[in-house]
Every structure is written in structure tokens, then in C-alpha cells.
Amino acid sequence: MTVLHSWPLASDPAHLARLDNHDAELNTWIVAWVAHALPRQPLSLFEAPILYPEHRSLAFSEHMLVPSVMGAPLLWSGVSPVTVYNLLIIAGFALSGWSMYLLMRRWTGSEWAGIVAGLVYAFNAHALTRFVHLQAQHVEFFPLMLYALDRVIADGQRRHALLLAAAFVLQSLCSNYLLVFMSYAMVAAVAVRWNEINTINKRFELIIAGLISIVVLAPFLWPYFQVNREYGLARSADVVTQYNAGWRDYLVTGGRLHYAWWSHRLYEGRTALFPGFIVLMLAAIAVFSGKRLKEPRVRMVVAIGIFGAAMSLGTSLPGYRLLHEFLPLLSGLRNVARWGWMPLAAVAVLAGFGVAALEGRRWGRGVMITIALLVTIEAIRTPVGFTRFNGIPRIYDRLAAQSDVVVVEFPFYSGANVSLNGPYVLANTRYFKPLLNGYSSFHPDTFEARGRILGTFPSEAALAELRGSHVTHVTVHTGRYDADTLKAIDAIAALDLVADEDRIRLYRLK
């Protein structure tokens, strides 16, 4: 099903990519950097080479440790970072669906409940419109968290508390957004089942799970705390306002059927959060049939979904600005519409319960197959639009062979055009040496100030900035300059031409 929903990616993962979006270039670089740094300098993981000479530049974005570790063996064996990134996208979808399948099969005893819930969970509108964001596909540990939490509440055994901590940590190390979502999902789940946590033992095991999670995650949170203290990483509520979800977002989908029919009228600039008509019907069956709403697992999932939907409204939600100011972790989120993933996850679980309810009424296999096909037809948006990747120019291999290298690429982009540094960031995977350029979800004022000066290259002020930053090598992308500017660059005595390949000139700065 992953191959189907991501087609034609599996037909040529080495050359198909979403590198038309610079977020994909950044995330590909992150995966490659983590795999490069862990065996060489694990304690300096966050001292990444881009945005030099800024410190802890990996903490300007998400570190995506778990997906990166999954792809590390392939990268170590010489597989292209773009290929690995594509394979990790496929793995994320498949593992997420499989994990939800296992949970719902365990909770309901129904194979079909697991299959449908897995399809809905993995291939929802939000995930299928975020191919450039690997972390959006790697949500495979959330179902395990739900299972472990349910078991801790039911029997208070230590092994389930340890499983809960492990699942929480692994999911949190996929994405900082997911760390925040999972934290509050657990709070919502525990709140609606608090009357069941009626023994000291159960409460103690929940505390143990929480403490273990904090201790393990602390080394990965500390760099973000330092960056926030030094640069001001937190987002203001006014910034969040630009990313609020609204009721229209919950009607947006990239699924071919609905997009062509009606959703395209709402799509522009919105977050796709529409679960599908069949899924909503199944969820309604789960909630309103019999006494389902009184079941602890159903109430727990409903609470998670309602909380996520409310938070996705951002500053449109009365009282959100106060929550943003005082609740832990919220100020680190910018795109609050992504809270909408939580109701989509909740609806997937409820859809599984709905299928189990129908199966309990002796609805046959043919109906179950039809339901699985219908939720797939509603969600599917293949063929997905990929661009062709022909490899990183070989001129960058010359930098890999050098020692004590500090690189800058021109044109140098900052301000509103900073994302255009994306190809330079991807090229850095060939040599992993300090690079003044960079693209990230956060850019400190010092980078922007440097960018304004370097934007005047080949001026004397720009050359002075290069020397002050200890730059040793300069690349110039000739297709982005006119002939007169290229002549002025060649006339600079301090620049020695090393190579001229693929419309890129490599100079050594004396």
C-alpha cells in the first residue's frame, strides 16, 4: 500500500525526489549528517557544519534521530542520501500502518479492524501532502504508546511502564513536534482515565515512565534550550497566528477524488486534515453504537482527538495566547495547524473500532474488503509529482579531499530568499565541512546580518566578511550572474580558480 500511495517513488528511488521543495533538501542533509556524525563525533552532533560559524546549528531544525539511525547503515555503505531519504519515506508509511494494525488487532481481535485502521492512520491527508517532511511519516511509535499506556492503567506492571517510556522516547526522537504532541496526548489520555488509576502502584509506574523519558530525552533537549537562551528560538503568539488551522483545513485533502471534485476550492495555503467520508462514518459508528463511548479506550482516543483539534486552531482558540505563554513546550511550535494530526490519528483508531462493530454484526468479508478499498480511494493521490535528481555535482568532491576547509557559495541567500540555499545544503553531504550558507526553520540575527553583507559580493565588504569568517574556498554558480559580475569576480586577486565544472567555479581564497 505504501508503494501504491507513493507511486512512482518506488520505481526509481535513486532519481525521483521532492527536491523542488527546499525542506526536502534540508531534511535529506539532516539524515546524512546524523549518520555521518554519530560514529565520528557523537558528542558534537548538534555542532553541524551549515550556517557556520553559528553554534549548535542542528538545533535550528529537528534532528530526526530515529529515522536517521534507521538509514545510517545504508549511508555508511555508500548509498546516496537522496535514495536513503526516499527509502525512509517508504519505511515510515509502512511501519506506521503496521504498528496501528497491530494495536487494533490486539484491542479488537479483528484482523479487518487492524487493516482499515492501519490504512487510515498511515495514509491520511496530512501525511500524503507532506512527502518533503520525513518526520510526518514516522509516527510508528504512537500506537505502541497507546497500547503501553492502556496496559499500565489496567495492571500497573513495570514492564509496561518501561515499554511506555521507550515508545514515548522513540516517537519524540523522530520529531520535536511529535514530542510536544505526544506529551499532551498522554496528559489528555490520563485525564479521562484518572478514575482507573486508583492505586499507588499504577501512579508510581506512570511517574517512572515519565522520569525515564525525561532523563533519556534531556541530552537532546538541552541544545534547543541553549539555542533558545542564546538566539531566542521560541515563537511568539503573533507568529503562530499565521499558521492557525480553521474549519476549512478540516475539509482539505490532496486525495485525487475529493480534490478534483470540491476540495481544490479550499486547498490553497491550508493544511490538509480531511479524514474522508467513509472514515468519519466508521468513527461515528464506533462512538455512537451501543455503549462504545463508555469504553475507556474509546474515551481516551476521543479526548486526544478533541484536544489536538482545539490546539490546531492556535490563537483563534480563546485562551490560547495564555497557554502559549505558560504551558511547557508550546512556544517552540510555529505551525500549530499540525496539531491536526492528532484528530486524524484518533479518527483512525475509532475507524478500527467501527469496523470491529460492523464485523460483530456479522457483516461479511466482502464488506470489509469494500471498506478498505473505499478508504484507499478517498485518500489516494497518486501519481505523486516528483522531480528528477541527477546527483550532486562532482566538483564538491574536491572539497571532501581537503582539510581545514571553510566554504561559502554564491549567490548567498538570506532573508526572504534563504530557502534558496537548499541546494548548497544538500551538496554539503558530499564533504561535511563548515559552510557559511544554510537553510533551516530558524535563522539567527547574526546569520541574517552576515547575509546582508555577503549579498554584496564581490564587494570589498563581502571579502572582508569572508576573511573574518576564515573562509578558504568559494564557489560561484555562474548561471546566476551576468557576464560583467563574473569578470569582476575573476579579477579579484585573492581568488585562485581551482576548477570550473557544471557551471560552478571553485576558488581558493588566499
Describe it:
The protein has helices at 2-5, 22-37, 65-76, 81-108, 111-122, 125-128, 134-137, 142-155, 158-172, 176-192, 200-231, 237-241, 256-267, 277-288, 296-312, 320-326, 341-360, 365-379, 397-400, 422-427, 445-454, 460-468, 483-490; strands spanning 16-17, 387-388, 407-410, 473-477, 495-501, 504-509. It is mostly helical and 510 residues long. The protein folds into two domains: 62-379, no CATH class; 394-509, no CATH class. The chain has a four-stranded mixed sheet, with no helix packed on it. The radius of gyration is 25 Å and the shape is globular.
| Overall average residue pLDDT | 96
Poorly predicted tracts of residues:
none
General shape:
globular
Strand order of the largest sheet: 3-4-6-5
The strand count comes to: 6
Give the number of domains.
2
Main sheet summary: 4 strands, mixed
- Kindly name the structural category: mainly alpha
| Proportion in β-strands | 5-15%
What is the CA-based Rg, rounded?
25 Å
What is the distance, rounded to the nearest whole angstrom, between the alpha carbons of the first and last residues? Answer: 55 Å
Instruction: Specify the number of helices.
Output: 23
Helicity range: 55-70%
Order of helices and strands: HEHHHHHHHHHHHHHHHHHEHEHHHEHEE
Question: Which key features would you list for this structure?
Answer:
2 domains; mainly alpha; 510 residues; two-stranded antiparallel sheet; globular; 5% strand; four-stranded mixed β-sheet; 23 helices
